[in-house]
Automatic annotation (TrEMBL):
Pfam family, one: PIG-L
Gene Ontology MF annotations: hydrolase activity, acting on carbon-nitrogen (but not peptide) bonds, in linear amides
Source organism of the structure: bacterium (Candidatus Ratteibacteria) CG01_land_8_20_14_3_00_40_19
Protein name listed in UniProt: LmbE family protein
Amino acid sequence: MRVLAVGAHPDDLEILCAGTLAKFKKNGAKIFMAHLCDGNKGHFEIPAAPLAKMRDKEAKNSAKILQADCLGPVAPDLELYRDKPTLKKVIDLIRKSKPDLIITHSPDDYMCDHTVTSQLTLDASFMASLPNYKTKRANDVPVCPVYFMDTVNGINFQPTEYVDITEFIKFKEKMLLCHLSQAKWLKEHDNLDYVELMRKQSSFRGLQCGVQFAEGFKLHYVSGRIKPKRLLP
């Protein structure tokens, strides 16, 4: 199986679905981790250009722990739009990874980069199947199931499927800690400890399904994306 996870920023996947990606990997899947935004706005002190380079390196270091391919970005923070040039870039990410399953943000998440990422991923994953929709990559790929991962803090999100990640919580934390630039920023801007946030949310979803730690998902229920079996690990 080939699994593509598409987040808005470096660190979003680590917070919301890295345990599931690790479980997929253990089961033999090929993993692709994409971030559509370059993370260049998330700091009070580091300027945008060097911050983008720093966050790209952090994303690659995290993906390396999982032995995953790191893809993106396609736009700066807060400049991600649902337009034709951006869609073509996301289509190329999908055509490159040839996924059997995609994980991305909920359309109800808390900020524009997350919600636009969700819509771009849905649109591009269908458009990538059309051979007459030309991009830099010539190959078309089949339409595949898309799962929405949890929102930040789980607000306005009721999972329909859960993945027990108890075995992988320390692995998930190790990946998240690669994003050192965000520890100070998130504490100052949002008054949160990102490791504590991740563990509390994973613990809460675990409580809901009877395990110590879990991640929650919702399948995008539309024609052409439903399979007659469980796909999450």
